[in-house]
Amino acid sequence: MTNYVHFDADGRIGGSTTGGAPEGTIVHGFPFFLQGSWSGETHYIAGGSAVPRPQITPPVPTIFPATQDYTITGVPDGAVIALDGAAVATADGTDITVSFPEPGQYQIAIDPPFPWRAAQWWVEAT
After folding, report:
1. Of 93 and 29, more confident
2. What top-level branch of life does the organism fall under (predicted)?
């Protein structure tokens, strides 16, 4: 049996099917097919190939003095940055600098536009 993924015009993988993928068929609202098996969580379709979705890498270290700013690089334009579950900023494609008012643990979450993968991690200001 042959596996196919189905995807939309933006390259979002909507799932997979086994067997034929007749031209013009729409599966779960996704009209395009590519032979192979990939997860939409980790890949998307670009230029007729499955490629890894880019991801944001949390800065190291994640434990630092509360008096020190925390800088996040590589955040794509349009990404929403949340601190402890509350949206605090929208990225403009430049580095994001976060200050913490007092020592403690803080959760940082970034919800970027597709095809980027969302990221979430904890930091500790001491």
Report:
1. 93
2. Bacteria
